[in-house]
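Each lists chain and fold; for instance:
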Amino acid sequence: SLSIAFFAILKGMSQRLARRLYEAGLLVIFVGILFHAPLSTGFGTLLPDYAIYIKAWKEVLIVLLSILAIVLITKHELWLTIWKSWIIRLCLLYALLHFALLTVINHGMLASVAGLMIDLRFIAFFLLSYVYGLIEPKAKQRAFKAVAVGSIVVVGFGLLQITVLPDDVLKYIGYSNDTIAPYGTIDKNPDFVRINSTLRGPNPLGAFIVVTFSLFVAWWVRHRKTITQRQYVYACLLTASMIAVLFATYSRSAYIGVIVGLLTIGIATIRRIDKKWGYITAGVAVASFLGLFLLQQTDWYANVVLHEDPQSKVVTKSNTEHIRSLRASYTSFTRHPFGQGVGSTGSASLYGDNSTSSVVENTYLFVARETGWLGLLLFLAIYALILMKLWHRRKQSWEATGLLAGGVALAVIGLLLPVWADDTVALIWWGLTG
């Protein structure tokens, strides 16, 4: 009844006001999601009875924006235009599959709702951004600027964590082992502290830096001949800052991802890069491999790259946990071709009947566990079509080049982490791509 009343109010609203509200909602999500972890943790600690609702602010806003999107699509007569896109059709089919599976396999109300939120929120945000891109093309620039400003704050706080702030500074706003750890370590080694900045952990922060760094490098490549001296200085400072924060995450998947992203940008812009930049890229690649070779006998290499410190007294190592999770997930993948149901995986499974988290250290096995082989095929088809679209638009738009590089990098990171289960990384990449 509330939805119908809300829809009726929006229906009578002027197009201009409806578009402004729609864009404001999208920008709130684009910026707010960058600070979702500290805000939801802090307010959730102050209001523990409402913690679960505080965490769901973005999903609630997505639902409200979906109703407003229907109004705008109707007013602008965009139904046929939207339906012509195979990406949109597959996204809707992917969502429909989730709801169909709930009628067959149900893990309880809370687990099912949480599973739907985790599995579909980035798909929904992609569709919402896509719709507004059709209605207001200039909105793209405002979205990218908003994310750029927010990303600078994220990187800046990460630098403060590296330099002057105590490791456990986030404990003062509610971070703990029961919510989000204020910092991480490599196999409980205090000599290798992993920062979070404003994200949920070191690995999500690393994946986020990969996306933003890919966009920044793509912008630099496109504008390298026209930037002013002051812009050049700022660009160098930002590059150094992002690399420092990425390094401090000690995220191996992010290290691999940033290399993949840079290689993708090189391939996508090969005809526009002069010899000087080719030599610089080759020099950096050679220096990186040489550095890894020289570091093989150091504690840094043993801890960060191998996660196998011979002096560590930790019995259960992270590598062992990763391998165990992958084996269990692969066994589930082969034995359950229709999946184990929405809400059976990750944090959503905590709300189920067993109240134990089913960790899956691979985003593709994560999808397959939730929705089976059909769901995985649909997701791969959506992702492949999006990357193809970005590839075809790489020459006209540096944003497309950056998102292409970030998307390819995240596809590789997804082999090692359930990267789309993290709300910040997922909503930023899918939203900007839409």
Notes: Strands lie at 184-186, 189-194. The first helix runs from residue 2 to 11. The radius of gyration is 22 Å.
